[in-house]
From TrEMBL:
This is Molybdenum-pterin-binding protein MopA. Residues 31-90 form the HTH lysR-type domain. InterPro entries: LysR_HTH_N, Molybdate_resp_trans_reg, WH-like_DNA-bd_sf, WH_DNA-bd_sf. The lineage of its organism: Bacteria, Pseudomonadati, Pseudomonadota, Gammaproteobacteria, Thiotrichales. One of its GO terms (molecular function) is DNA-binding transcription factor activity.
Length: 120
């Protein structure tokens, strides 16, 4: 999975997308999905992002409710141990968000430089 693009001395645009019905997707939810994909655990992802476990579940639940289907799959513990992974929808959300973020940053270099110059 692709991570957030990093650039030197350039402001990075991280969009928030409002899809109606109270559904919004932005950097926080996407970073959480990325961490879940990497760590295979909501609890570990929450720790990595320094957010409470309950807040992580609330963010996941808001996506599940907004899309009407789950963005993560959890498996119970047991002999092989439990875990969490992204559903196809969860994977697609991260992929599409990454593509949008990359395109916005690539297309807005002039505007980003102008904003950056205001801070210098």
């Amino acid at each position: 999975m692709q991570s957030t693009p990093k650039t030197n001395n350039v402001i990075l645009v991280r969009p928030r997308i409002y899809l109606g019905k109270g559904l919004a997707i932005g950097p926080g939810k996407i970073d959480l999905l990325r961490a879940i994909a990497e760590l295979k655990s909501i609890a570990a992802a929450a720790r990595k992002l320094s957010i409470p476990y309950k807040r992580a579940w609330a963010l996941i639940d808001s996506l599940n409710q907004g899309f009407g289907k789950p963005v993560v799959e959890t498996t119970s513990g047991g002999k092989g141990g439990g875990g969490t992974s992204l559903t196809l929808l969860g994977q697609q959300l991260v992929e599409k968000y990454d593509a949008l973020e990359i395109r916005l940053n690539a297309q807005a270099t002039e505007e980003l430089a102008a904003v950056r110059a205001l801070a210098d």
